[in-house]
Specification:
The chain is α/β, with parallel strands linked by helices. The protein is 43% helix and 22% strand. The chain has helices spanning 13-16, 18-23, 40-46, 48-64, 83-94, 108-114, 117-124; strands at 4-8, 31-38, 72-79, 98-102, 128-132. It has a five-stranded parallel sheet with strand order 3-2-1-4-5, sandwiched between helices. α3 (40-46) packs across α4 (48-64) and α5 (83-94) packs parallel to α7.
């Protein structure tokens, strides 16, 4: 089990699908951080305070949908030019021992053009990174 867990979310239901899997790795003593990286352009366009508040509101809504989540939960959002760098830097600063995140598992040209945030995080992080693919998600319903 893990003490400090970082779960980056991008606003998609797929990324939120990591939560049931991550819950299986938590104890009542776990500290869990739901996290979102904000692009600098969005921050400049709407104001950093506004976009951070919007991100935190979304993350709190995600927590509110959970039934009796174990552990202590908090929400954080940062502005970063690179999603992967934002995740890795925040994980280092907060001394997390696990990053649990979704990957879209792109292939071919899509992967070449967009790259893989999860792959970059896995290569750069100094802690365990649990990457969840669509095939790993628990069907809802």
């Amino acid at each position: 089990m893990y003490r400090n867990i970082l779960i980056p979310l991008d606003g998609s239901t797929e990324a939120e699908g990591v939560l049931p899997i991550a819950r299986g790795l938590m104890t009542a003593d776990s500290d869990v951080i739901l996290f979102q990286v904000i692009a600098p352009g969005r921050s400049r366009a709407f104001g950093e305070y506004t976009v951070r508040r919007e991100a935190i509101r979304y993350l709190r809504l995600v927590i509110s949908k959970l039934v009796e989540p174990p552990g202590q939960w908090r929400c954080e959002a940062v502005v970063s030019g690179s999603v992967a760098d934002g995740i890795v830097e925040f994980a280092r600063r907060e001394e997390v021992d696990l990053i649990a995140m979704y990957t879209y598992d792109r292939k071919g040209l899509s992967k070449l053009i967009k790259g893989s945030v999860a792959e970059k995080v896995r290569k750069s992080a100094s802690v365990e990174v649990r990457v969840v693919k669509a095939s790993d998600l628990v069907p809802v319903g």
